[in-house]
Amino acid sequence: MNIEDLHQIARIEKSKQEGFQHQIHVCVAAGCLSCGSGQLKEALEKEIARRGLDTWCRVKGVGCLGLCTAGPLLSLETAGIFYQGVKVSDVSDILEALGGAPVERLICPVNSAFFRRQVRIVLENCGRIDPERIEEYMAESGYGGLALAVSQMSPTEVIEEVSRSGLRGRGGAGFPTGLKWTSVAKASGLTKFVICNADEGDPGAFMDRSVLESDPHRVIEGMAIAGYATGASQGYIYVRAEYPLAVKRVRLALFQAERMGVLGNNIFNTSFSFNIKVRLGAGAFVCGEETALIASIEGRMGRPRPRPPFPAEFGLWEHPTLINNVETFANVPPLIRKGGRWFAGLGTEKSKGTKVFALAGKIMNTGLIEVPMGTSLRDIVFDIGGGIPRGKEFKAVQTGGPSGGCIPGQFLDMPVDYDSLAKVGSIMGSGGMIVMDESSCMVDVARFFMEFCMSESCGKCAPCRVGTRQIYDILCRITGNLSGPDDLAMLEDLCDLMKSTSLCGLGQSAPNPVLTTLRYFRDDYLSHIHDKRCLAGACKAAREVA
Amino acid sequence: MKIHPRKNVRSDLNPSRLLTFRIDERVVSAHEDESILSVARQNGISIPTLCHLDGLSERGACRLCIVEVKGVARLLPSCVTFPRQDMEIITASERVVSYRKKILELLFTERNHVCAVCVSNGHCELQNLAVELGISHVRYPYLYPRLAVDASHSRFSVDHNRCVLCLRCVRVCDEIEGAHTWDIMGRGITSRVITDLNQPWGSSETCTGCGKCVQVCPTGALSEKGKSVAEMIKRRQFLPYLQMMRGRQDESWPK
Amino acid sequence: MAKITLATIWLDSCSGCHMSFLDIDEFLIDLAGQVEILFSPLVDTKSFPDHVDVSLVEGAVGSESDREKVLTIRDRSGILVSFGDCAVTANVPGMRNRYPVADVLARAYAENACPAAAISRDTLFFQEVPALCPQARPVHEFVPVDIFLTGCPPPPEAILYLFSELLAGRRPNMNGRTRFGA
Amino acid sequence: MKDQGAPPEASVQVSSKSVEDRRLRLVNRTMQLYRNEAHALIETLHAVQESFGYLEEDVLKYVARTLRVPLSRVYAVATFYHSFSLKPPGEHTCVICMGTACYIGGSGAILDALREGEGIVSGETTSDGKVSLLVARCLGSCGLAPAGVFDGEVTGKLDSEHVLERIGRWRGHEH
């Protein structure tokens, strides 16, 4: 394949799509599939064929439309109409309304803040293209970034463009992507690897899953560009086995990309070659840590090892290795196509671009959103998210999963970016955002996360292995109203120990949910300890005390 | 079990730089590929360790050997940290010592370490560390897990109640004996050392019965049968020698 | 100089620490001149005095009655010494903590009885003796402890050192004089 | 020199299995795909889990020999990762999501109800062998919290009655 071929495929695909007067997009990402969008799509196809409408109307399975709470979702691309909660019995009404007045009772307001306030870069194709057809991705300028990079830019220029964009790792810590690529490119060695971390382990996060299910080629293209820039010719996508649909679509996408020649040898008639393999995770949160992930790809237990040496010089099979997460790679193709300066124009001074969040918990609009960095928490929760259901009071928003923290109402006007979140004791994390209302006891929430860290601790270093268990026991005693006078001091003492002495990021950040709830919701703790009462009324006394 | 870059073998082809730096206010010099722990010990400065053992690969896991380095906020494990020119290392600041104590106390709570009835009483590295660090009592609640004793092997026994998961047994079996009979199952607080497919040691097909694992074990977890309280004394002088012999470059002596 | 008043007690333990105390031999005579024992298994007193300067508590807290005693002692003592490994770590009494109390009693008094006793499990729960707590725990988990004297038993030299420091009005530093399991 | 290619006894001891057991096909294919290299261990265990439903001890031995990985290492990997199970599963499988959104949404109460109503604890199979109950860290279906999977079918917005009812049906009794 050369660049002309790419443009040709895009042109053909475009004109084919324009041939249809109506395109009905049915969301077939995991969320809507589990409310029956698969059957809905089938019913639509059958009915269209029965009515003989198939020459001017087409049904297309697309990736996540965002508003998971209202599934199954359906969009009429040309008319710009969204239908929500669609059932098989609605099919004939929908088809009859085509071209006329929409079906009133199914309408999902598109001009609501949920849709209006989003800026989509990573999700630009989500809900618009069929993730199982490479041609549709190409019709949206897909693989154009790779073509541009390998044919007109030197590897150094690609890295310069990435550095100029100010893109930071979207996996959690926010390490500057350009810097990471530079160190891998500079590392000595002929064999290098690129790994995409799709082991999205944070409970309450589903951004990576949605991207892989809705637009897998974007990640593949990003990895290939990274391979070109760093001098790697082999890539791995390490994806959770718990995401069967994402695995299936990634495998299909890889197959198509190889067949089309955008992966393999001599890509776009250059000397650049790049291949990608899929490796399945097996249910270990700690494998999100770089060195543990590498151990897992090598077929071993995912136990982190001390760094340095960093994977950039001593990684997979001892070779220099670049590890970025799904969303980071997904940002790369548009960044190359449109330039680093364009990307740097979005977001805040130190956090550029946009961020995808998975909104969940006690919030009206649960689902997937993408907003510019620096959007305030209030805008996200109350405007885009539609606020708290059933007239309840907002209590906290949890970001960063088990490594993050609970942010109270007083910080609602804080801009969401890496540094502001760090300042209040939380982290950006991979983008899970869980909203809690007054019915959640924050000690119980801390206990929930500590239970998670305890059972996900790899057990290698003593502070994390035993510390998580001791902290969990204390939190159980507190929620069970069985705590002693010294428990609070011991809790703080152990959190400090784990933070300072654990081997890897999991152990060092595991105390964050406890520390932030202690800082902002101390009353929840004190009420349990002194009055033997749960302020939120959420904890059953003396439950599950070890 | 390769978890860390192999030490470069120094030779004329691969010279290593000699560095000068400070440990506890003392000026020392060492090669760039010698760990801070090893340099400190050569200079008579003791740093407590549990998972480290001369002659085995490093794990960096017990966290007892953490030290402070001036200008670095994080505490660094000295067994896997290498010196840099003009580095200033403090091995026993108040902060570091207090963390070491807490880690050791956590280890005491994790399993059932009843020194009074232990074969290794008086010869135990865990017990000695408690004395060295001045631990008079354990502030955290003991967890009292229910763990088994496996005495199925004809000469040795393993008592999980006394295991600190240093994994010296796993490493010596893999790296020196070459059998890899031992490994570690599960994760987190439920981790446990196993032989073969988590079967009784006595039924292991791969165990050569060499007993190296018993000798390197820092506590009474692995012991020789027939030893009563305080009678188990470990001898491991063979280790550095074996490592040298097995790691040597020219595989055979001139015959 | 006024004598310091002393109480000693054993809870869930073997009394070995008290034996080690007696092993300071001739120094007992010196000590007798400077210390007045108000309450101890070694003297005949029925109830704990209102105040003592120093209390040595041997043994783990293994029953509800132990717990009450330890609370009283803390209340009425100037300096409370956790005396020996059982008090400091729960030691041997703590080895039963992994098993349910009923199983422990059955094992000790029925299964291992010699000759095999025809005792059923139910009759093992006597009314006359204090019921065991689910676990035997160290003293400092119940009350603040001032001095920890480890060892099973603590060596006589360490006990002697403890007293000589206390008598000199100093807070003894036990580091290096004894250890767990000594 | 002894041939190093085929591990000794491998063919003898598992011959009965490899010839007759069709379930080994997927396992063998996976190992061949990776040229029987040790790093294929996790992928191979996935294949074993998929075709046998759990990791059978004999198969673990077979995999260890073929990939030339120590037995203890195979067991270590098999128990480190939560996707693998060493016990045969029940006829039906129910997975309850305990991700943050689902927990906030009440999945803890569902587990409590299952324990009280059906006597099942997560990670275990009912004594009649009908139902295995598992807990997932996050299904990624947070928009539908609390979510669960019943024999592979993801279902959202669960409540205790609904779950008890489905499990009761599997076990052949009503609630």
Describe the structure using short key phrases.
heterotetramer; A: 546 residues; alpha/beta; Glutaredoxin; Rossmann fold; Ubiquitin-like (UB roll); 4 domains; 5-stranded mixed β-sheet; 14 strands; 43% helix; globular; disordered C terminus; B: 255 residues; alpha+beta; Alpha-Beta Plaits; 2 domains; 3-stranded antiparallel β-sheet; 10 strands; disordered N terminus
**Strand residues, percent of chain A:** 5-15%
Report the helical percentage of chain A: 40-55%
Shape of chain A: globular
What is the rounded Rg of chain A?
Answer: 24 Å
Runs of chain A in which pLDDT lies below 50 for 5 or more consecutive residues are 542-546
Q: What topology emerges from the helices and strands here?
A:
The complex is a heterotetramer of chains A (546), B (255), C (182) and D (175).
Chain B: E1 18-23, E2 26-31, H1 36-42, E3 66-69, E4 76-77, E5 88-90, H2 94-110, H3 125-132, E6 149-150, E7 156-159, H4 168-177, E8 182-185, E9 192-195, H5 212-216, E10 222-224, H6 238-247
Parallel strand pairs in B: 1-5
Antiparallel strand pairs in B: 1-2, 3-4, 3-5, 6-7, 7-10, 8-9
Chain C: E1 4-10, H1 16-22, H2 27-34, E2 35-39, E3 52-58, E4 61-63, H3 64-76, E5 77-83, H4 85-89, H5 101-111, E6 132-137, E7 147-149, H6 156-167
Parallel strand pairs in C: 1-2, 1-3, 3-5, 5-7
Antiparallel strand pairs in C: 4-6
Chain D: H1 10-20, H2 24-33, H3 41-52, H4 57-67, H5 71-80, E1 92-97, H6 100-104, H7 107-118, E2 131-136, E3 148-150, E4 153-155, H8 160-171
Helix pairs in contact in D: 2-3, 3-4, 7-8
Account of the protein in words:
The complex is a heterotetramer of chains A (546), B (255), C (182) and D (175). Chain A has 546 residues and is α/β, with parallel strands linked by helices. Helix content of chain A is 43%, strand content 13%. Chain A is built from 23 helices and 14 strands. In chain A, strands 2-1-3-4-5 form a five-stranded mixed beta sheet, with helices on one face. The termini of chain A are far apart. Chain B has 255 residues and is of the alpha+beta class. Chain B has two domains: 75 residues, Ubiquitin-like (UB roll), CATH 3.10.20; 140 residues, 2-Layer Sandwich (Alpha-Beta Plaits). In chain B, a hairpin with a 5-residue loop joins strand 6 and strand 7. The longest helix of chain B is centred in the middle third of the chain and has 17 residues. The radius of gyration of chain B is 19 Å and the shape is globular. The N terminus of chain B is likely disordered. Chain C is an alpha/beta fold and 182 residues long. Chain C has a single domain, classed as Rossmann fold (3-Layer(aba) Sandwich). In chain C, 31% of the residues lie in helices and 21% in strands. Chain C contains six helices and seven strands. In chain C, the strands form two sheets. Chain C has a five-stranded parallel beta sheet with strand order 2-1-3-5-7, with helices on both faces. Chain C is elongated, with a radius of gyration of 18 Å. Chain D has two domains: 71 residues, no CATH class; 80 residues, Glutaredoxin (3-Layer(aba) Sandwich). Classes of the chains: A alpha/beta (546), B alpha+beta (255), C alpha/beta (182), D alpha+beta (175). Chains A and B meet through helix 18, helix 19 and helix 20 of A and helix 2 of B.
